[in-house]
Amino acid sequence: MSTDSGASGVQVALIALFTTALVTSQLTATKVLGFAIPFSLPVVGAELILPGASLAYALTFLASDCYAELYGRRAAHVLVTIGFAMNLVLLGLVWATIAAPAAASSAVDPGAFAAVLGASTNVVLGSLLAYLVSQNWDVFVFHRLRELTDGRALWLRNIGSTATSQALDTVIFVGVAFYLAPELLGVGSPLPLSVLVALGVGQYLLKLLIALFDTPVVYAIVGYARSRTAVGSAPGAD
Questions:
Q1: Measuring CA to CA, how many Å separate 27 from each of 67, 117, 123?
Q2: What is the Cα–Cα distance from 227 to 238, expressed in whole angstroms?
Q3: pLDDT tens string 184-212
Q4: What is the distance between the alpha carbons of residues 83 and 63, in angstroms, rounded to a whole number?
Q5: Under the phi-then-psi rule, with left for phi > 0, alpha for psi from -120 to 50, and beta for the rest, what region is 33?
Q6: 111-122 confidence digits (pLDDT tens)
Q7: Beta-carbon count within 10 A of 90 CB
Q8: For the whole model, what pTM was predicted?
């Protein structure tokens, strides 16, 4: 394999990881997860409660940080825009499949299929708005930290950009999906404030933990890509 093909493979893999994790998070957003922890924390107690999308969505920040480091700010913004478009494609295909008539021999009940895959209006609004704000903020902070450190301390911009963008994502998604949208659109009932706070804190803590542990992975991916070619080292990459 040539160095160019190796670098191209990394780029394609990062795009694939980003979009796969993103669309998976959209499909899994409606399930609420509960993780028991061996100690009690303020607000959340001894259980972290979070949307099912949190696990997959956390991987999008790993992929976008690697992509931003290697290919620059403009390329990262293009990746975010493409991801948003693919999210709309996913929603359109899922809703079209739900609306299509089911065969009598279908092993899956149409109602159950719609309940599992048909994200509610409030979840869709919350996830799309949170995505647009948090992912673009992540790219901005990542490159701002890169400028301030003269390209050093990749760990700082990986953790710093992800920690702040995940905070924005959590507040917007939980606030819009489970409070503002139900209140304004009449789609269900808003969750009590105590539940909203517990849901947000649990989601953010898990995302932050993943960001801390994925830093060695970011170093490995960036190091491998740069070992194959000079990608990401050109002054005009941003």
A1: 24, 6, 10
A2: 20
A3: 766 667 888 888 888 888 888 888 888 88
A4: 12
A5: beta
A6: 888 887 876 677
A7: 18
A8: 0.83
